[in-house]
Design brief:
The complex is a heterodimer.
Chain A lengths: L4 E3 L2 E4 L5 E6 L6 E8 L3 E9 L2 E4 L8 E7 L2 E6 L8 E8 L7 E2 L3 E5 L1
Parallel strand pairs in A: 2-11
Antiparallel strand pairs in A: 1-3, 3-8, 4-5, 4-9, 5-6, 7-8, 9-10, 9-11
Chain B lengths: L3 E4 L2 E5 L4 E7 L4 E9 L5 E8 L4 E4 L2 E6 L4 E6 L8 E9 L4 E3 L3 E6 L1
Parallel strand pairs in B: 2-11
Antiparallel strand pairs in B: 1-3, 3-8, 4-5, 4-9, 6-7, 7-8, 9-10, 9-11
Classes of the chains: A mainly beta, B mainly beta.
Chain lengths: 113, 111
């Protein structure tokens, strides 16, 4: 298996633009997690899905953030409009079931100018 | 609210030495605890997962222990090598499915 796949790996955009981050979990995994990592706050859970259903989105910072999982093999995290303080590395992770060992993707480094 | 603390934030150790990384958590009602390694600019790699019913897990030169009653876990690295240099993160899983991470310990093994 190729592991968790994220795209793009790097994204540079201007304030106010829409940003869409993509994630393909490991095949067969039924839980998917979106995290954000910054120097100041460390690694924070934004939202997670189980069997494509959002279970807990209490970590989503604002209404500007939204996440979807239309099927078991794809999820998106969207920021609209983006702001400079959204600059961070965004990780996607998946696991076979809740709660269980999580496997992380390589991350998307987002820079909002 | 669960809080996970890792001390020290950074550690430098000569090659060949054994070392211990520490993780503490405030709520002992955990489901599992996971240790990760993160290399600069990279994602997280799972090292060891300890279920709440277990006291330790071993993988090669790594040994992780869990003491729920005292809210502590340690990651022991034997015979350290320069390739062990990375940031090590502790993550606590609770029964409400939340995963809380510590901020990590940056480890530097001196050749």
């Amino acid at each position: 298996d190729a592991g968790v796949i994220q795209s793009p790996r790097h994204e540079v955009t201007e304030m106010g633009q829409e940003v869409t981050l993509r994630c393909k979990p490991i095949s067969g995994h039924n839980s998917l997690f979106w995290y954000r990592q910054t120097m100041m706050r460390g690694l924070e859970l934004l939202i997670y899905f189980n069997n494509n259903v959002p279970i807990d989105d209490s970590g989503m910072p604002e209404d500007r953030f939204s996440a979807k999982m239309p099927n078991a093999s794809f999820s998106t995290l969207k920021i609209q409009p983006s702001e400079p303080r959204d600059s961070a590395v965004y990780f996607c992770a998946s696991s076979l079931s809740l709660p269980n060992e999580q496997f992380f993707g390589p991350g998307t480094r987002l820079t909002v100018l | 609210k669960q809080e996970v603390t890792q001390i020290p934030a950074a550690l430098s150790v000569p090659e060949g030495e054994n070392l211990v990384l520490n993780c503490s958590f405030t709520d002992s009602a955990i489901y599992n605890l996971q240790w990760f390694r993160q290399d600069p600019g990279k994602g997280l790699t799972s090292l060891l997962l300890i279920q709440s019913s277990q006291r330790e897990q071993t993988s090669g030169r790594l040994n992780a222990s869990l003491d729920k009653s005292s809210g502590r876990s340690t990651l022991y690295i034997a015979a350290s090598q320069p390739g062990d240099s990375a940031t090590y993160l502790c993550a606590v899983g609770s029964r409400d499915d939340k995963i809380i991470f510590g901020k990590g310990t940056r480890l530097h093994i001196l050749p």
